[in-house]
Specification:
7-stranded mixed beta sheet, 13 strands, alpha/beta, two-stranded antiparallel sheet
Length: about 300
Amino acid sequence: MYSILNMKGIILAGGSGSRLHPITLAVSKQLLPVGDKPMIYYPLSVLMLADIREILIITTPHDLPQFQRLLGDGSDLGLHIDYAEQPKPNGIAEAFVIGADHIGDDSVALVLGDNIFHGPSFSKVLAKEREELDGCLLFGYEVHDPERYGVGETDKEGMLISIEEKPSRPRSNRAITGLYFYANDVVARAAELRPSARGELEITDLNRIYLEDGRARLRALGRGFAWLDTGTPESLLQAAQYVRTLEERQGVRIACVEEVALRKGFIGPEECHRLGALMDSSDYGRYVMTIADEVAAAR
């Protein structure tokens, strides 16, 4: 069922979403709509595009039942989805401590639940980086205000030579996005991390360990790619506008997980059509059925 080079997936969908209060006082940030679908569909589709089918969603005890109601065990999409609790936002790197049993002996991809990625041939990019993984792989994106982000500096081969968190004088304009690939030893390395002054297991501290070992690379997402962080009301609106504009002009839907599952061969046209029929009162559901019918007719 799974690739020989197996990689597990983790979506970190915890936190309080305080920058989006009062909206997120009642609902998880990752369940808010971006366009016509919940935010978590976007990071979920990234893992699916990387041919990852065993996924752990880490969220708060309060929000966990809502994610289960939305996604279930993932079997409708040809996935296996498990859930785990992160009672407090103790840092991104804690995901590897919480998810140690889920990762097992495999490599792992971690994606933040409020990050949106979109670009040409993204599935091929992910597949290539997954096959060549040896240590830590970060994905970088050029921004005009790198002082707001974690920033990675690389040599000509793409190996990391420095990582800075919100530097006043950035050495690079490549922000480190919320998508990370790690070899299996990340489980042991995360378990040995010391909490920062904020009491968190910092992802930057974890990445520096790989940098010092000479096993950290940064893959730049070039022109044509979009990376959106939806953590504020302004960025959430911008993401929705971006998605709506592309979908209306191109007639396709970004992060339609049913379509991704179909085109990746996780499910067949009949299963896909059935999922669309459950939502046939919406344009989204009718789109899913149309795609299923088109794929079935082409076979």
